[in-house]
Amino acid sequence: FPVTIKIHKIKNIIIDRSAVSNTEMQAQLNIAEWKHSGQNTLGNFSYKINSSEKILIKTNTLDNILDRYKLGNIDFIKIDCEGAELKILKGAFGILKAKKPILLIEVLEKALNQQDSCQKELVEYLEIMNYEILVLSKSSGNWISHDKKSDLSENILAIPKTQNLKIKTKLNNQ
Known about the structure:
alpha/beta; five-stranded mixed β-sheet; single chain; 7 helices
């Protein structure tokens, strides 16, 4: 990444060489074999994947990273991290309360289970943080409110309840 940033003269990127989690600590990162390189994880692999190596890394919270780099507005966060989604959200408690960003989150039950979590626990946490959960409608392809009776889509959109009507209108009128 540093070479790409330099070549393209990108000024608004910060590289922080830590994994995002719910606490600051040392952790073991399981590096997947090359053909599954997007599935590196701090937990166990969700699928039958061989580990090419395991390395010790530093973890940090999004709240700490925001403070360290004196970042201002946070409007949107995408989280797809092989089951550690709830840990990341818990490490972003301050951001979620103060900044109220829109969240796009992968919520694969199998991956969450490998990190001692589940979809129900993740959704409950977001609801406590005053977020509404939207799922992709299988029939229309629009984002709709999750009714808790149906399954979640693989990715959910979590929007602050204080902004939900405005955001839902914009999403479905594009």
